[in-house]
Amino acid sequence: MSTTIGQVIRCKAAVAWEAGKPLVIEEVEVAPPQKMEVRVKIHFTALCHTDVYFWEAKGQNPVFPRILGHEAGGVVESVGEGVTDLAPGDHVLPVFTGECKECAHCKSEESNMCDLLRINTDRGVMIHDGKSRFSINGKPIFHFVGTSTFSEYTVVHVGCLAKINPLAPLDKVCVVSCGISTGLGATLNVAKPKKGSSVAVFGLGAVGLAAAEGARIAGASRIIGVDLNSNRFEIAKKFGVTEFVNPKDYNKPVQEVIAEMTNGGVDRSVECTGHIDAMISAFECVHDGWGVAVLVGVPHKDAVFKTSPLNFLNEKTLKGTFYGNYKPRSDIPAVVEQYMNKELELEKFLTHEVPFSEINKAFDLMLKGEGIRCIIRMDA
Ligand code: NAD
Ligand code: ZN
């Protein structure tokens, strides 16, 4: 039994003091978990674009000082009042959005948009009492999307923790927390391509490559990667992408190029760019009669989707998805099992690794667009 239960833990955390300034490794105090909360020892974390976006804080409310990080794997250290389905020693993945299991969304088989724990990027405190569990000399340090995994210990609402197979290597499955599940689920849960079908993936970043991985797992025979950056094509080959289209190479809309390549359109498309032009192309490039397009990218707030209603009358379907339609607690453990069964290949996403003390290097790599995922080892 750990002696830290019920005690404040002093540990290292990477604190973002100001927008765009390198993180500083500080000694922080982490309060014990309160009602429905769990304190987790983070073993591995990874950097995702969303961390960089909120660290730069160019388009949103700046919330500083803050502990970022939301893709991670860890082990439960202690649990607060009311937590019955997790215990010290359990292996968990923190997730930026949650599953309370009680609201209308959680009770619906179709939705993963929990009313209580849906992602909230402006909140820097715990829901229970509106306070932070992190402090330095009594001064609060804010949380990020309920996870704050750039800390040796963090406190998370029980509804934002997926309990996973303890045999799963945390240095690999930590990336299932966010980007990989988003792309994978967009294909497997929402686009649902049939074996032997054609799938176009717009945007070959981590999310798009995970969407391609979903298409490979589903048995798609043609996976067409679309990206404005031709440098992405080499890496995408490892993900089963069979053909490439750079819209810049053509003087007609990319949807027309794809329709010509596929005798009228692809069976499924998944958009992972966040750019409105790509969203419209992704919809218009699906085959009439049965084609389904799925939007994953987060658009500019003023973007407007414009297409002819005839596309719908011609039986093209447009869908969108949040977090690949996965419910964090109910569904994510099974994604980890897909990796354990060697169905899902995670290693090809893991291109870099740095010790926690060098976490800013992971930011540099992402800003330079190098690699896919950089794993940050907390014990080094
Ligand atoms: P990324 O920046 O690594 O990759 C995006 C890729 O799209 C880049 O390679 C870029 O060159 C390409 N691209 C940009 N505009 C394009 C265009 N018009 N046509 C073709 N390619 C284009 O991003 P990522 O981390 O892979 O994330 C992808 C998107 O998914 C982002 O918008 C992100 O915000 C979003 N996202 C959504 C969810 C969700 O739940 N819906 C969750 C996580 C991330
Ligand atoms: Zn809920």
UniProtKB/TrEMBL annotation:
GO molecular function, one term: zinc ion binding
Signal sequence interval, chain numbering: none
Name of a matching Pfam family: ADH_zinc_N
Catalytic activity as recorded in UniProt: a secondary alcohol + NAD(+) = a ketone + NADH + H(+); a primary alcohol + NAD(+) = an aldehyde + NADH + H(+)
GO biological processes: formaldehyde catabolic process
Domain Alcohol dehydrogenase-like C-terminal: 206-337
InterPro entries from the UniProt entry: ADH-like_C, ADH-like_N, ADH_Zn_CS, GroES-like_sf, NAD(P)-bd_dom_sf
Record flagged with keyword rRNA processing: no
Domain Alcohol dehydrogenase-like N-terminal: 35-164
Entry's EC annotation: 1.1.1.1
CDD domains: alcohol_DH_plants (cd08301)
UniProt-annotated location(s): Cytoplasm
Top enzyme category: oxidoreductase
Cofactor list: Zn(2+)
Keywords carried by this UniProt record: Cytoplasm, Metal-binding, NAD, Oxidoreductase, Zinc
GO cellular component, one term: cytosol
Keyword rRNA-binding: no
PANTHER family according to UniProt: ALCOHOL DEHYDROGENASE, ALCOHOL DEHYDROGENASE 2
The family this protein is said to belong to: Belongs to the zinc-containing alcohol dehydrogenase family.
Descriptive protein name: alcohol dehydrogenase
Organism: Tagetes erecta
